[in-house]
Amino acid sequence: MRFRARAFGFHLLGSACVLSLVLGGLYAGWYRWPGWYLTDAVHIAATVAAVDVGLGPLLTLVVANPGKPPGALRRDIAVIVAFQLAGLIYGAFALWAGRPLFYTFSGGALDIVQASAIRPEELARARAVNPGFVPHWYSLPRWVWAPLPADPDQAAEIIQSAVMGGGQDVISMPRYFKPWDAGKPDLREKLTRIEDSHYLSKPQKALVTQRMGQLGLPVKEANAMILWATDGVRRLVVVFDRQSLQIRTMIDPSRF
């Protein structure tokens, strides 16, 4: 039993170190708050963890028989490790494809834009006309302004495409992106009071207001906007300083 326990312990330690390195790197670079919550990445991470630090070491505990020939034991463990690596690579690729690249202000809403939402042809167009907003593999999340184009025909086409479904919205078109600061005047006009929000229930409004009061933030000012996840369900209340438009806090209305 001691042999099995040692094999299990070494395998668990090694798996935990590799998993921590991969997930830690993704979290530190791209999935820091609010990215981890808005992309719902915890489900993918939990699945990978269940395979890598759960199932893998447990299988080693089962096959680590001291009476088994060394060659057979090495083969069995190699198969288990290969299975773990396949799960880790799949999970890491899914997290990489879904990593947050932009937090956009467009119209009257804030949205998170994941890497998978930007099509290759849009990247090519942005590279030609707006290269400063083309994300690279090392690009970290940026806050940007994504206004509709000045051309009314182009703007109408984008709106129709987004409303009808299946098309792209301007928030996934980096060729139209502009610096965050350039959109601040429009942002200030679009901020609302919590009590006037159409996207919060009465209990949520009361609880968000309570939380703002606890943080010493004004609750009667038009200083808030909803930040939406890609699924259109998860959301955060982003509270700004009315004068500087610096973000003061982000409140999850579903956690009260």
Rg from Cα: 24 Å
Q: Please, how many helices?
A: 8
Strand count, sense and barrel status of the largest sheet are: 7 strands, mixed
Give the class from helix and strand content and strand pairing. alpha/beta
**Strands, total number:** 7
Order of helices and strands: HHHHEEHEHEHHEEE
Strand content: 5-15%
Write up this protein:
The protein is of the alpha/beta class. It has helices at about 1-30, 35-40, 40-65, 70-95, 120-130, 150-165, 185-190, 200-215; strands spanning about 100-105, 110-115, 140-145, 180, 225-230, 235-240, 245-250. It has 2 domains: about 1-95, no CATH class; about 100-250, no CATH class. It is built from 8 helices and 7 strands. Strands 4-3-1-2-5-6-7 form a 7-stranded mixed sheet. A hairpin with a 2-residue loop joins β1 and β2. α1 (about 1-30) packs antiparallel against α3. The protein is elongated and about 75 Å long. The termini are far apart.
Note the topology:
Layout: H1 2-29, H2 35-38, H3 42-63, H4 70-97, E1 100-106, E2 109-114, H5 120-129, E3 142-145, H6 152-164, E4 178-179, H7 184-190, H8 202-214, E5 224-228, E6 235-240, E7 247-251
Parallel strand pairs: 1-3, 2-5
Antiparallel strand pairs: 1-2, 3-4, 5-6, 6-7
